[in-house]
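Exercise 7. Given the encoded structure of a 209-residue chain, write a plausible sequence.
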């Protein structure tokens, strides 16, 4: 009777449990577990996707910026990654992207007209105060002319002039500066993703040993 069962299993291409290689079975379970855990803890797969996780219902403030970092685990981890590499300019650039994400989202959905003149003024001055005036968080830009234009606009707004949409658009243009995005945070985030993927797999395997 037993031989009949074995024969039937072989005919279907399946071995009985007791004849399976225990090492292969264990490794198969580990691989399945790793894939499951990796999916559960998957970080945003691009810098753009990371920024999409930033709440953007209202303009950013220095106080809200801190809360945003505290509540966003992958933003925290990427910032820590930059800190370990002593990449202070990139850490400031990341803060700038987070700070201006609210306005970028409004532009993307074509709702910039929803902002009052006072909100526009506050948005620009808050960003300028942190990234153009504070020596500890000065934003590094490759485009020096753009940097000078932002400084000039900041002085005009502080003197009482209105903030134009063009001035706010310059903030978004700064997001695309090579030192901020293309040669700055984007390649660093890709490196971070690779490091995170390796560490996650190692942690899953070690937890089963």
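Solution.
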């Amino acid at each position: 009777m037993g031989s009949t069962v074995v024969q039937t299993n072989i005919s279907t291409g399946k071995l009985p449990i007791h004849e399976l290689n225990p090492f292969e079975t264990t490794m198969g379970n580990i691989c399945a577990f790793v894939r499951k855990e990796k999916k559960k803890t998957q970080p945003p797969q691009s810098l753009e996707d990371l920024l999409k996780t930033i709440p953007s219902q209202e303009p950013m403030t220095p106080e809200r910026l801190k809360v945003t970092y505290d509540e966003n685990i992958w933003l925290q981890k990427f910032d820590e990654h930059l800190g370990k590499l002593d990449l202070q300019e990139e850490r400031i650039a990341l803060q700038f992207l987070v700070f201006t994400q609210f306005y970028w989202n409004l532009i993307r959905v074509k709702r910039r007209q929803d902002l009052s003149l006072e909100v526009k003024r506050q948005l620009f001055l808050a960003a300028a105060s942190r990234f153009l005036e504070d020596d500890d968080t000065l934003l590094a830009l490759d485009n020096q002319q753009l940097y000078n234009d932002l400084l000039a606009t900041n002085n005009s707004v502080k003197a009482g002039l209105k903030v134009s949409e063009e001035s706010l658009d310059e903030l978004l243009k700064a997001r695309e500066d090579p030192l901020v995005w293309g040669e700055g945070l984007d390649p660093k985030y890709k490196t971070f993703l690779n490091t995170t993927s390796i560490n996650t797999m190692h942690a899953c395997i070690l937890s089963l040993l």
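Remark. The two ends are 39 Å apart (CA to CA). Students should compare their own answers with the one above.
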